[in-house]
Design a protein that fits this description.
Length: 409
């Protein structure tokens, strides 16, 4: 089923395609299409950033190891630069913004331990998902985001990390508080909550590391302190704490939106839901199609270390290059009938998890969770329906997800 996308004026700046603009917040795709067709390498002098929208350019850019990531290395006054203050130490960051040689030192041991943990805990992860879905209302109207999409990722990551059962309510609160950091227009009260949440979380992770050194558990915190003690993970305590926090912040809202966007898409496209029900073996491909069609993270960025050409245009050292993952994922040069949500087609790889050295470390976990939720949810609620409602998309720039999703069981 193709969505209608009549011609729209070509945007002149990045802000026009973010959730700050009501039309782009409701549906960014027509504007992204206009840019991809008319101005695929846009310079925004106000945001001091480039904005790429073609799949080929973006794939090449994210894979290119000669770019850097830390916002302090970006041009003064650029949107990336506004994320940090001058006092900040560029080495005191999670892998998200860490550059070489530190990124290659910190990420591999963390990734190895994390992937081993996810595989080991897959039955427990699936049990958390099943229990959460079974605990949702048996019938009537309910908000799928509040009942299912929000709690699942935080309960799963808590179990993987090794959060003690009796600390879960606090952990969920801190996690909500630190996620306020993703909102650049948060209030002073929200900033204060974000800061106190982040202090509490760091304190708790430090406490857990000390506890697991004396009494090992079956969790990622134990894995990391043991690797560190054996010399297999050359990370400081502070680096472990920062990066465990990154797993929490990086994984919650994104997976919540993969669940919410997927359920919304299936309920809007009953033919696709019928195809999934008829062949549950399509579930993995369905997850990839949701990621392609409504990517929960709509952009990532890179910074130039030297003057050079990018996407055929001369660019300068320290300039910021934003890559629209949402636009790339609907590029007709790469995807046949890109405006159709179709889980039955075997498509080229989407780019919703970015790429290259910084490719999302949580992709395997997000995939396990979404696959299980789609299958279990439509099995528990065979007649799940989407009542009339105003869909409110979150006002966070570069994220795509619904605030609420009322469904009728
Ligand atoms: C649907 C869910 C998710 C989406 C769409 C998503 C998307 C992304 C994207 C676009 C990036 C930047 C990649 C780049 O610049 O090339 C990223 C990085 C990252 N993600 Fe995810 N993510 C998801 C789930 C998760 C989960 C579940 C976790 C952890 C539990 C996680 C943790 C991270 C971390 C730590 C990074 C930084 C990696 C690095 O820079 O080396 N993400 N993610």
């Amino acid at each position: 089923m193709a969505d209608d996308q009549s011609a729209v004026p070509v945007p002149q700046g990045i802000i026009e395609v973010t959730a700050f603009m009501p039309d782009a917040r409701n549906d960014p795709h027509p504007k992204l299409k206009a840019l991809r067709e008319e101005c695929p390498v846009m310079r925004d002098d106000l945001a001091k950033a480039w904005f790429l929208t073609r799949y080929g350019d973006i794939r090449e850019t994210v894979n290119d190891r000669t770019f850097v990531r830390h916002p302090l290395r970006a041009e003064d006054g650029s949107i990336s630069r506004q994320l940090v203050d001058d006092e900040e130490n560029p080495r005191r960051t999670s892998i998200l913004f860490l550059d070489e040689p530190d990124h290659s030192r910190v990420r591999p041991p963390l990734a190895r331990a994390f992937y081993t943990r996810i595989q080991k805990m897959k039955p427990q992860i699936e049990a958390i998902i099943d229990d959460t879905i079974n605990a949702a209302p048996a019938s009537g109207l309910f908000d799928l985001m509040a009942e299912i999409a929000v709690p699942i990722p935080v309960l799963v990551i808590a179990r993987i990390l090794g959060v003690d059962e009796h600390r879960l309510p606090e952990f969920r609160q801190w996690s909500e508080d630190v996620i306020l950091g993703l909102n650049p227009v948060r209030t002073a009260e929200e900033t204060a909550r974000m800061e106190s949440g982040s202090i509490a979380l760091d304190g708790y992770f430090n406490e857990l590391m000390a506890a697991r050194r004396t009494t090992p558990g079956d969790d990622l915190i134990t894995d990391m302190v043991q690797l560190q003690a054996r010399g297999d993970a050359p990370l400081t305590d502070d680096e472990i704490v920062i990066n465990l926090g990154a797993l929490l912040v990086g994984g919650n809202l994104t997976t919540t939106d993969l669940i919410g966007n997927g359920v919304w898409l299936f309920l809007k496209h009953p033919d696709q839901l019928a195809a999934l029900k008829a062949d549950p073996g399509l579930a993995s491909q369905a997850v990839e199609e949701v990621l392609r069609y409504e990517a929960p993270v709509s952009a990532t960025s890179r910074i130039l270390e030297h003057d050079r050409d990018v996407a055929g245009c001369p660019m300068k050292q320290r300039q910021v290059v934003f890559c629209s993952l949402a636009a790339a994922n609907r590029d007709p040069e790469t995807f046949a009938a890109p405006e159709a949500f179709d889980i039955t087609q075997k498509r080229a790889s989407h780019i919703a998890f970015g790429g290259g050295p910084h490719i999302c470390i949580g992709a395997p976990l997000a995939r396990i969770e979404a696959r299980r939720v789609y299958l279990k949810l439509f099995e528990r609620y065979p007649g799940l329906a989407l009542p009339e409602q105003d869909f409110t998309w979150r006002a966070l720039p570069f994220f795509r997800g619904l605030e609420t999703l009322m469904v009728e069981a």
